[in-house]
Amino acid sequence: MTITRRAVALGLAATMLQALLLIAFAWPAVNLAPRDLPIAVTGPQSAQVAQRLQQQSPDAFAITTLADAGAARNALADNEIYGAIVTGEGAPQLLVASAASPAVAQQLTALAQQLGGAAPAPVQDVVATDPDDPRGAGFGSMVLPLVMSGIAAGVLLTLLVPAFGARLAGLATFGLAGGLLSTLIFHTWLSIVPGAYLELAAIAGLAMFAVAVTVVGLAAALGRPGIGLGALTMLLIGNPFSAATSAPELLPQPWGTLGQLFPPGAAASLLRSIAYFGGAGAAGPLAVLLGWSAAGLALLGFGALRARTTVEPVAGEPVPVAA
After folding, report:
1. Is 93 helix (H, G, I), strand (E, B) or coil?
2. Which pLDDT score is estimated for 174?
3. Measured between alpha carbons, how far is residue 139 from residues 18, 60, 158, 246, 294 in Å?
4. What's the half-sphere exposure (Cβ side, CA atoms, 13 Å) at 256?
5. What does the pLDDT read at residue 298?
């Protein structure tokens, strides 16, 4: 292939990548809608409200009937539901947890206004977002930098550090220092996520490490094509379907659920769980991050073992001497 043909091929490949990125990021954003969104109803008119919701939007909500408003508040605090409609005398009352998803809280608020008729339905935010980030815009913007820095670290360590042990040391340094520095910015300086600094730093560092070690591990096992595979996996699947700015139940399925099985989505869910809900629901996303980290380390070990086997001479055979 001539240099000109190679240049044309690379230009076409970059164009296809641009199209894939546009689809991956824009398609979920324009198709946000409730899909089996967990909510609750309570009170004497709970059956009528549930029936009305099911008739209006048959597949939008997964409705649970709870005993009273106290049980609904507990379910919201435990990160089990996104909102609850409390019925009784007068217009229904809406309970939301905007910390779980400001986008969902806004949609449920609009729905409650419809249920209330002429009188606006009162809304109580049981678990609110940080006052410095009421719409969750800052929280949602954290995910992409974590992903991009993880990819960059993985690429640089693969290309510039040939020794596998040194790569592992670089990954550990990146996860530790990156977690501390990024949390210093979004927690201490910008103040967009509440909670304990070291706890949040550990989550951010683990997320960054999981992305970076995946890229390094795939490159060690597959060669340089592994770099592209790891980077594109995080960019085309992990980040746009992370639901960091919305909620998994608002994304087209199965992509909303699938996104939670990748480091970006797991990191966003784990940060929400620790920062706002006292760790409720943290086990699943923590297991995802640990699983990706372990898989990346296993691939890195496999690559190191294969390289060592390739280089070492077989017993009994003469060692080749350079001319």
Report:
1. strand
2. 97
3. 26, 25, 30, 11, 27
4. 19
5. 96
Instruction: Confirm if 289 and 283 have CB atoms less than 8 A apart.
Output: no
Task: Provide, rounded to the nearest whole percent, the portion of the chain with pLDDT above 70.
Answer: 94
Secondary structure of residue 95 in the 3-state scheme: strand
123 membership: H or E segment, kind and range = strand 123-125
Bridge partners, 86 (sequence order): 42, 93
- Nearest of 217, 207, 183 to residue 264 by alpha carbon: 207
In tens, the pLDDT along 21-38 reads 888 888 888 888 999 999
Token digits of residue 149: 């820095």
pLDDT band at 112 (very low <50, low <70, confident <90, very high): confident
Residue 275 CB coordination number (10 Å): 22
pLDDT of residue 26: 87
Helix or strand or coil: residue 101? coil
> For the packed helices 143-160 and 164-183, what is the interaxial angle rounded to 10 degrees?
160
| Cα end-to-end span (Å), the chain | 32
Instruction: Write the DSSP string, 193-204.
Output: S-S-HHHHHHHH
pLDDT (tens digit, 9 = 90+) per residue, 276-321?
999 999 999 999 999 999 999 999 999 988 888 875 554 445 544 4
Mean pLDDT of the chain: 90
DSSP 119-137: SPPPEEESSPPPTTSTTSH
Helix and strand numbers, DSSP H then E, in the chain: 12, 5
Per DSSP, the three-state class of 42 is: strand
